[in-house]
Specification:
Blueprint (H helix, E strand, L loop, with lengths): L1 E7 L6 H14 L4 H22 L4 E7 L3 E9 L21 H8 L2 E7 L2 E9 L1 H9 L1
Antiparallel strand pairs: 1-2, 2-3, 3-5, 4-5
Helix pairs in contact: 1-2, 2-3
């Protein structure tokens, strides 16, 4: 079992470096490119949601590689009521609101837990999918 952990401020500028560090770690763990892409997309969606909708203290990205799967966990902290909201430009509603659907489609299992203002989304990615794809090619 191997683990990747990164903690960072809820700032959109932190998303690309977190994703790049995770990509390097996944490559080092032997996760194939297609499955790594699924994990990176889900991580980006969950981190972005944390920055935009929660935005309290630090965000924690934790990923564990086991023999047959990868578990991704993103923990965010609710923004204090007195904190200013994250500023963003209004977008066409047709361009937003699909993040959780993407998470469900790309991961094999998902759980959400909340405790004391902390929200953790955990997603499981089975790597057997990776081996089945390679064997059927």
């Amino acid at each position: 079992m191997s683990m990747f952990v990164r903690r960072f401020l809820p700032d959109v500028a932190e998303i690309p470096p977190a994703r790049n560090d995770l990509r390097k770690w996944l490559d080092g763990q032997g996760v194939d490119d297609e499955r790594a892409d699924d994990i990176l997309i889900v991580a980006s969606e969950l981190i972005t949601n944390g920055v935009i909708h929660d935005g309290g203290e630090r965000i924690t990205l934790r990923v564990v590689r086991r023999t047959d799967d990868v578990e991704l966990e993103v923990t965010t902290v609710d923004r204090q009521a007195s904190a200013p909201p994250f500023e963003r430009q209004a977008r066409d509603p047709a361009e937003t609101g699909r993040g959780l659907l993407i998470v469900v489609c790309l991961s094999d299992d998902q759980t959400l837990t909340t405790h004391g203002g902390h929200r953790t989304v955990t997603c499981l990615f089975r790597l057997a999918r990776q081996r089945q794809s390679a064997n059927s090619a």
